[in-house]
Amino acid sequence: MLAKHKVFALGLQHVMAMYAGAIAVPLIIGNALHLTPEQLAYLIAADMFTCGLATLLQVLSTRYFGSGLPVVLGCTFTAVGPIIAIASTSNLPTAYGAIIISGLFVVLAAPLYGKLLRFFPKIVTGSVVTIIGLSLIPVAMNNVAGGQGSADFGALHNLLLALVTLVVILLVNRFATGFLRSISVLIGLAVGTVLAYMMGMVHFGSVGEASWLRVAQPFYFGTPQFSWVAIATMIIVNIVSMVESTGVYIAVGKATEQKVEQRRIVSGLRSEGLAIMLGGIFNAFPYTAFSQNVGLISLTRVKTRNVIFAAGGIMVVLGLLPKLAALTTVIPSAVLGGAMIVMFGSVAASGMSILAEVNLRNDRNLMIVACSIAVGVGSAVLPAIFGQMPSFLQPLLQNGIVTGSVTAVVLNLLLSDKRTMETENEDGSVSGLGMDAGESATVTVGAKQ
């Protein structure tokens, strides 16, 4: 049993790992829609507050809601373009009305989606988890260089900060034991930020300007309005998020050695639907399982849900105390990038671990893995390749997790020579398709073979 101060520190580490990605969405949307500084400050605070509530909903496990897995929820980048487009052509209340209805759709559609899990045997899930990790690597490297579009992109001081952060994390993992080892990322971020401060790269102006207390206000931007086009757009966005989250659940199951059966995934997606509806009510964003934190679980080997409960509580407090939230924004992008290299690489390694259980000497299996990873990573790294496609298809095609998943599922059905009918095991796991004779593909992850 971890002491309370250790649980808090580990929870804070999870918050630091996802914070940059969480606040990037409100910053991008707020600037694109030319919101006032006061409105932008509210958007960030409301986002953190709702991230915390969404995470708590996910970690809780009831009969119908919550996966019970140590999963952190954050706003999905897939929604950025559609929200900006909807708000630009109509207004923000229309965007939030669409978010609320699309969240209800996720709650109602989760059981039907669960019945499709037979199309996700290990050869598919391993490929998807690997794609998640590999597609995040460019995000890490952009941060290492100082952040996309920064004036000092690729400058030597940015590369130095990232290197020092990475080296500190590796040294702590190599020589420390117990609790210190489990907070290696937090230590690396702290050392990197202190070094950046000494180099004159850390500024506390935003902390001084932030208010001490602000309570999230329902319908801050006005009463929700409804447009069928906007609703259909946001439903497509959330279908993408459902696929993303499935991959994250499986990756977390692998990292924590837990069985991820159909019931857990359906309950988790129902909670995400509730979280999305909360996002619309508090004028925040749609939420999905964050893959950033999967690598942290693999790295620290701390699998308890209490840590994620702490992370959710910290995010709620940050949402209520903007000054504390602003304090975490002083960490330079290069420092975050150094930590991301380890975390995102760990996600990819988890996917490779799943694929290690598949017979890749079989040419058919090899082709499924090769093509799905190539298509998925290619779509993530170069989304502009689909720039000439119809606008309603672009959110799907430009998401590497979706294109990679679809490629893996279709090729598994077309190329596998010994497909069997899906049967449910007594333990709730699902026997899959497309494996060699004597093999059983399941969506159960982490069970001993």
From TrEMBL:
**Transmembrane segment boundaries:** 7-29, 41-60, 67-88, 94-113, 120-141, 153-173, 185-206, 226-252, 307-325, 331-354, 366-386, 392-415
UniProt keyword list: Cell membrane, Membrane, Transmembrane, Transmembrane helix, Transport
Q: What does the record say about its membrane topology?
A: Multi-pass membrane protein
Identify one Pfam family in the record. Answer: Xan_ur_permease
Where does the protein end up?
Cell membrane
Q: What is its main location?
A: membrane
InterPro entries in the record: NCS2, UacT-like, Xan_ur_permease
- NCBIfam families attached to this UniProt entry: ncs2, NCS2_1, pbuX
Protein family = Belongs to the nucleobase:cation symporter-2 (NCS2) (TC 2.A.40) family.
Protein's name according to its UniProt entry? Xanthine permease
